[in-house]
Specification:
The chain is built from four helices and two strands. By secondary structure, the protein is mostly helical. The chain folds into two domains: 87 residues, Arc Repressor Mutant, subunit A; 40 residues. A two-stranded antiparallel ribbon has the order 1-2. The termini are far apart. The model has no long low-confidence stretch (mean pLDDT 78).
Length: 133
């Protein structure tokens, strides 16, 4: 990426937000410190800054801006008064009605998958029996 030209701050921000969402979705909650460590290195690589250079302060400020944007967009949760030890999560707190609707959708999807798998197994079974006749 670096060799093709300078990335705008908006492009780097989008990349970092995608990384944050991916980390939270697939690896669970992270502390701000752990995110800063991961993202700081990525910012350094994207910007082509030598390993010896410190971008900690700027990188942390930029990461905090990305976190703020994701919080405003209601994509992640982090306690107010965020510190380096705060935990960031992608799990939304659902109200009672929202939780019931979510659980109903999950159950419906599970039932649909089970039904499709049963049909697939039945078809495979019928296909296997026809070959042996």
């Amino acid at each position: 990426m670096r060799q093709q030209g300078h990335l705008t701050e908006g492009a780097v921000g989008s990349l970092l937000k995608a990384r944050i969402l991916s980390l939270l979705k697939y690896h669970g909650p992270f502390s701000v410190a752990a995110l800063a460590s991961d993202l700081g290195e990525r910012i350094r690589l994207i910007q082509g800054v030598p390993r010896s250079a410190s971008i900690h302060k700027d990188g942390l400020a930029f990461m905090n801006k990305c976190l703020d944007d994701l919080i405003v967009d209601d994509l992640i949760e982090c306690p107010a008064g965020r510190t380096i030890d705060s935990v960031v999560s992608s799990e939304k707190k659902l109200t009672g009605k929202e939780r019931r609707e979510y659980e109903a959708l999950k159950a419906k999807e599970k039932k649909r998958r089970h039904k499709a798998l049963s049909k697939k197994r039945a078809a495979a079974s019928r296909h296997g029996k026809k070959k042996h006749r």
